[in-house]
Amino acid sequence: MNYLPGWLKQEIPDDLARKTAGKISGLKLNTVCRQALCPNINDCFKRGQAAFLILGNFCTRHCGFCNVENNPDLRPEVDPGEPGRIAQAVQVLGLRYAVITSVTRDDLEDGGAGQFVKVIESIRSIDKEIKIEVLIPDFQGDTEALKKVVRAAPFVLAHNLETVERLYALVRPQANYRRSLGLLAKSGELAGGLTTKSSLMLGFGEGEAEVVSALKDLRANDCDIVTLGQYLAPSPRHYPVKEFISPEQFQRYSEIGRDLGFKGVFAGPKVRSSYHAEELSEELGKVLG
Predict the structure, then answer these.
(1) What is the arithmetic mean of pLDDT over 138-146?
(2) Which domains does the chain have, with CATH numbers?
(3) Which own/partner pairs from 31-40 qualify as long-range (CB within 8 Å, at least 24 positions apart)?
(4) Single pTM value for the model
């Protein structure tokens, strides 16, 4: 598909967005906003928000939807100064809610779990009241790596399912649908009360019944929050968009998700996993309160 429906029009960069980008670049940090060509980058940047991408900007996996560069042979050293610079960025941007994600580093013994912990600790060293959401890879099913992150007590622990089970071989060939579900369930087991979150992108060619099945699987594995958004291919060499999902269909999925018992559901064409993460967590807090 080579056209975009009107509901997917994007924000034009303004001075506030450029200022945020400059602050982050000045600290030599990566964001998934920029590396993954997120369509919401200007909206988030002008509000002074960003999702930080740790462990470099090269991924050891090759997912058909992702714009982050893939090079399984490139194994950059883990940057010991990165956690401190992220804490500095959080302070400079005045964030009260920080989102941290990473490239997948299957080459590292703990998959990068230790760096997640150091980032959490660095942010808390400047202000213990800042809420931290981490969006983690599957750590190849390594429970010990997961334990490291869970013990650091993030406010929200997210791991994205991304698509329905049938499409994993095409869209996420190095991932495993059941392993991802198990990680979410295990996270809750390791820390009672930990809020877990996942995300689905739509438009890969999945059917409604498959989406509902994935939502049911997430709830069966104690996922608390789910987001659903429209997949947009970053380039012609990426997995093609098969369908543009209407806002009305997203609303239907939102209603289905709430009926299934999710504590927070955010669904819409422009929605991404970390988009308006702070607002969604506040909504969850009202539900739990």
Answers:
(1) 97
(2) 6-288 (3.20.20.70)
(3) 32/68, 32/101, 32/274, 35/67, 35/68, 35/69, 36/66, 36/67, 36/68, 36/234, 37/67, 37/234, 38/272, 39/8, 39/10, 39/232, 39/270, 39/272, 40/10, 40/11, 40/270, 40/272, 40/275
(4) 0.89
